[in-house]
Amino acid sequence: MAGQIIIGGLAAGSLYALAALGLILIFKTSDIVNFAQGEMAMLITFISFTFLTVTKLPYFVSFLLSLVIAFIFGMAVERIFMRPVQKAPILNQIILTFGLYMVFRGVAGIIWGYTPVGFPEALPNKHFNYVGITITINQIFIFVVTTILMLGFYLFFKHTKIGLAMRASSQNIATAKLMGIGVSSVFTRTWGISAILGGIAGILIAPVTFLDPNMMGEVGIKAFAAAILGGFTSLPGAIVGGLLIGVFEGLIAGYVSSELKSVFVFALIILVLYVKPTGILGEKITKKV
Amino acid sequence: MRKWLVNSLIMIICLVLAACGGTNSSTTSTKNAKEKSSVKNSQGVTDDEILIGGWVPQSGPAAQWGILAEVYQSYFNKVNADGGVNGRKLKYIAIDDEYQPSKTVAAAKKLVEQEKVFAILGTTGTAHNKAVKPYLTQKGIPVVAVASGDSAFVKPAVKNYFALQTNYDIEARIFSTYANKELKAKSVGIFYQNDDYGIVYRDAAVEELNKLGIKVAAQESYNPTDVDFSAQALSMKKASPDVVFLFASPKPAASFLKEFDKIGGSAERMLTYTSADSTMIDLAGADVMEGVLSTTWVKSLKDKDNPLIKEYVDQISKDIPKQDPNSVFMRSAWAYAQVLVEGLKRSGDNLTWENFIKQMETLKDWDGSLAYNVTYTSDYRYGQTSVKISQFKGGELVDISDVIKYEP
């Protein structure tokens, strides 16, 4: 029983981690918490669903096509909505993303309706049984995809010039500009990339939560919690945070009671932040003068 | 400074006066209504129109129920096209309460006091309906077909409340009886939503199962917003009951059944009618849903020759072409509207609340709607307790029994 709960928890946790990656990416470059991240993911999942059902494209073709659209969509959101308020206080920008969250949800409801629909899984639905523990190919797939994406972006930030430019932009826009970094285009691209990450997350999460305009509601909150638990600036932290939350939730639901699982999860987060305010893998924020 | 003080004092006095005036006028208006009842119609009725209202969530987490309002409108379109009710056209107003009880209260007040509707039809949400019940009871406005099967609206009977869909408590007992008689169950596991709705079901099932001497092997709950049900499925499998009762909304029920199937759980499964709809096939897949049992209280579309079915399919395909008319939810909504209109028809030209309520109580085993045997008396307000057992077979929900009438 415990083994199966842990596997189930890891599976749920990878979903949270996957959804958290896009949040962290934007936060790392622009200090903005993008509340609309989950709803952008949902919109892209709907677009992918439209490719699948209306134009009857194969799964991976519609997957890739919708990611291309995601990139353009993410950049457009930055250009149209975020750019004009770039110089405004961070809080105003965050509130704007909250507004986008409501707009996207409403728009999706108008276009696709609110009745939930099933979404196909990435790989054929097969599962293995090993010493009484069941695990599906898709659970492994989600975990692998999340890890690869995390590692990829981790290395990208550490070792590429663009990564460096992104980090620099987050530190100080004016200085970064003086160093010859096109800060605006860095921001635009970051939004494009995190929309892609959101799209991947949405498409992989939809078979579990089903597809409707509210699909990212609960996952979005847990992703946010995962990001905070891991330290909001750390990509590996998102995975650690996500998996921890998933497993802890499962154990509480299995051995204590399922009503209390969210309560315990957030109690755990408070405890961790009390001991280590920057989160498990978060870097200490120091302002150099 | 003094001017400001004087101004605010005047304002306070005005407010107090307005408040007193408000209560005064409302008492006179009820008095008037009583006097008028012998001569004049109640609010919302003119020479050529009857105004009906209700709230449904059209945005927010439960926005899928917004479809109910479209179905009511569609039925009214049909009635109006046929000449209306005794020459009066029906007009329907829906207010979006976003599935938040606080907004429901405002919506109910708006409908009664500003829009001045004649009756309230098919309003969603157990908690939401409960929140406004004292207010609507005090006003005395007819509330027809509350879209909830909670006992709060029928037990004890309330003068202006007419329920219609199967009572939750009763369905849980029908499940238990069926598990005992037909499925020969020795043990039952319960998967339920941890709120008013699920707990009513759970309590009734546990009570009935104990009476029948059937063991309750597991009680697994979840919160409405949960997305992962692997722990519950696992505990259920471990308890290995003969039958699993699912008192859950569509998404959690579908997720749980998928998970239960994946880890090799095997049991007869019975799913509450509030979720047993064609959407379940979309969500969980036909394989997983194969064999799942439920009850239905609305007539099946299979009976194509039935004029009631024909008029339903024709009108819905015309007004709401995007939706599959086979949806149980839509058929239910159609039945709600039919029962209301029947009451209006029977009221003739005497459209007072008093008379409408009296006429509704003349419905006895009325079979003219999509529901079976609709009945109301002054102390029986369930509407109906007649269901058929249904089962998911080959990607469809089909009726597998005759009408079973449960006597509460």
Automatic annotation (TrEMBL), chain A:
Keyword Transmembrane attributed: yes
Record field: transmembrane: 6-27, 34-54, 60-82, 94-115, 135-157, 193-211, 223-246, 252-275
Xref: InterPro entries: ABC_transp_permease (IPR001851), BCAA_transport_permease (IPR052157)
One Pfam family from the record: BPD_transp_2
Top-level taxon of origin: Bacteria
Keywords: Amino-acid transport, Cell membrane, Membrane, Transmembrane, Transmembrane helix, Transport
Signal peptide start-end: none
The name this protein goes by in its record: Branched-chain amino acid ABC transporter permease
TrEMBL record, chain B:
Pfam families in the record: Peripla_BP_6
Span of domain Leucine-binding protein: 50-393
InterPro entries: Leu-bd, Peripla_BP_I
Keywords for this protein: Signal
Signal peptide limits: 1-18
The keyword Signal belongs to this UniProt entry's keyword annotation: yes
Family per similarity comment: Belongs to the leucine-binding protein family.
Protein's UniProt name: ABC transporter substrate-binding protein
Species, as recorded: Neobacillus rhizophilus
